[in-house]
Backbone:
């Protein structure tokens, strides 16, 4: 029988030292796994949103014409507008053929099997 261990929420330290941050960005850029995860890793530093917000992004919230991502912030239920640089648009366009039929920009791989 599986045992569940409850983990108390913790605050994770932020990396502010430029050389260490550069190393993290290089590791993210060098990711060789799935296209979906690779796109999420490349998009994250361009949009600076919470990981959960990125993970739950909906295609209907992305506007390619205005280069904006509009959604409701989960924690506060307030509208949020994220301007999308042309690099972010390129990443999303690269991902669209794979996940564009899904509600989510970054769906679970279990969902992709059923698409």
Residues:
């Amino acid at each position: 029988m599986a045992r569940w261990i409850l983990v108390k929420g913790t605050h994770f330290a932020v990396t502010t030292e430029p050389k260490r941050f550069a190393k993290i960005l290089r590791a993210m850029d060098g990711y060789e796994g799935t296209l979906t995860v690779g796109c999420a890793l490349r998009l994250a530093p361009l949009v600076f949103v919470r990981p959960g917000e990125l993970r739950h992004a909906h295609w209907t919230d992305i506007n390619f014409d205005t280069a904006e991502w509009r959604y409701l912030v989960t924690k506060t239920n307030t509208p949020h507008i994220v301007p999308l640089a042309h690099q972010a648009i390129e990443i999303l366009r690269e991902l669209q053929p794979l996940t564009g039929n899904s509600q989510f920009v970054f769906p679970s791989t279990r969902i992709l099997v059923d698409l």
Remarks:
- The chain has one domain: 18-114.
